[in-house]
Automatic annotation (TrEMBL):
The organism of origin for this protein: Devosia marina
Site (Important for catalytic activity): residue numbering on this chain: 218
GO biological process: cell wall organization; peptidoglycan biosynthetic process
Subcellular location field: Cell inner membrane
A GO term from the CC aspect: plasma membrane
Keywords: Cell inner membrane, Cell membrane, Cell wall biogenesis/degradation, Lyase, Membrane, Transmembrane, Transmembrane helix
Pfam family, one: YceG
Protein name according to UniProt: Endolytic murein transglycosylase
Transmembrane intervals: 20-42
Keyword Membrane part of the UniProt annotation: yes
Job of this protein: Functions as a peptidoglycan terminase that cleaves nascent peptidoglycan strands endolytically to terminate their elongation.
Length: 373
């Protein structure tokens, strides 16, 4: 009897051990499976990716992490969108995706890609408008950028764009870029007008803008702008006409073409709204989009008595010479004409020498060909 009880106790004790062993085995197996799964996920997430060459990936505005993960897998940047989105959102510092274009290097891991899309800087895209361009030129450049959307079919007012570089995200509208350019000009003009010289003979910000556009077209040398501005301010104070060649040109082209020739006498004598040789005061609109330096030059012109200026040399980069009297100005003009004639003669000599060199080369080649025959 006692033996049967002891045997039952031993069997009962062995069964409990078996159960515990079984549970422990399942636990170990579970840990191995979980550990193996985590190792696999981590190796996929942190290991080298499938990309074989550097590529650019675009995140559209409003894309979520899940949407981005799916697009990355579809385009071959990653192998598993679920690992990218679910594991990445738990282990990375940020899971907030930025919009824009991102440069992804070959072999980039999921971790590296997610860091780039959340913490990196998108590629910079910008539209740059040089100082002195007309609105027609500016709109041509904006419309030509194929990373922007929509079109601008109507020209904005001349002078309403502040030259400079304007960043955008691919997919932005062309109108939004134009709006930024116009807002920048509105703000800059208001600030410059508020800080202008007290005795400036201009009645409004619009007049300052018009005169600044003329100054911008008269010289591309920054240091000369206050001098040029002062000449025009002095003329306005004395009731003299501005007599600016760029205004005549704008009246001919309206800023929508380049005048690839000199101004004709008939065009100087023709009375148009933009011919400042024939009209008093300022033309009705700006003739270009002036930069901030031209605006500031008009708001703070130099203090001098010059009323005239003419080009110093044959190229614009040589600047101008200034005069207080018409007689002195005539002497400067005569000197300029001599320099221009000399430059034209030298250019013709160089062109002729180039022609002769080509003719000699061709003749020599023909002679060699004839000898070979």
């Amino acid at each position: 009897m006692n033996d049967r009880r002891n045997r039952r106790r031993r069997r009962s004790g062995n069964g409990l051990v078996d159960i515990l062993n079984g549970l422990l085995t399942l636990l170990v197996i579970g840990l191995v499976v979980v550990g193996g799964g985590l190792f696999y996920v981590a190796s996929q997430y942190y290991g080298d990716g499938p990309l074989r060459e550097d590529r650019v990936f675009r995140v559209e505005s409003g894309n979520t992490l899940s949407t981005t993960a799916n697009r990355l897998e579809e385009q071959g940047f990653i192998t598993n969108s679920m690992i990218f989105s679910q594991f990445g959102s738990r282990v990375e510092e940020s899971a907030i995706i930025k919009a824009g274009d991102f440069s992804i290097p070959a072999g980039a891991s999921m971790s590296e890609i997610l860091k780039e899309l959340t913490l990196g800087n998108p590629l910079r895209y910008a539209v740059t408008i040089p100082e002195g361009w007309t609105v027609w030129q500016a709109i041509q450049r904006i419309n030509a950028d194929d990373r922007l959307t929509g079109t601008i079919d109507q020209l904005p007012p001349e002078g309403s764009i502040l030259p400079g570089s304007y960043d955008y995200t691919p997919g932005d509208t062309r109108q939004s870029v134009l709006d930024a350019m116009q807002l920048a000009m509105t703000q800059a003009l208001a600030q410059v007008w508020a800080g202008r010289e007290a005795d400036l003979p201009l009645e409004s910000p619009a007049e300052l803008l018009i005169l600044a556009s003329i100054v911008e077209k008269e010289t591309g040398i920054a240091s000369e702008r206050p001098q040029i501005a002062a000449v025009f301010v002095n003329r306005i104070r004395q009731g003299m006409r501005l007599q600016s060649d760029p205004t005549i040109i704008y009246g001919i082209t309206l800023g929508q073409a380049t005048l690839d020739r000199g101004i004709r006498r008939s065009e100087i004598e023709e009375r148009t709204p933009y011919n400042t040789y024939q009209i008093d005061g300022l033309p009705p609109t700006p003739i270009a989009n002036p930069g901030i330096e031209a605006l500031e030059a008009v708001a703070h012109p130099d203090s001098h008595d010059y009323l005239y200026f003419v080009a110093k040399g044959a190229t614009p980069r040589e600047g101008h010479v200034f005069a207080e009297t018409y007689a002195e100005h005539q002497q400067n003009v005569a000197r300029y004409r001599e320099i221009a004639a000399e430059a034209a003669a030298q250019a013709e000599e160089e062109a002729e020498a180039a022609r002769q060199a080509l003719e000699a080369q061709e003749a020599e080649g023909a002679a060699e060909a004839e000898t070979a025959q």
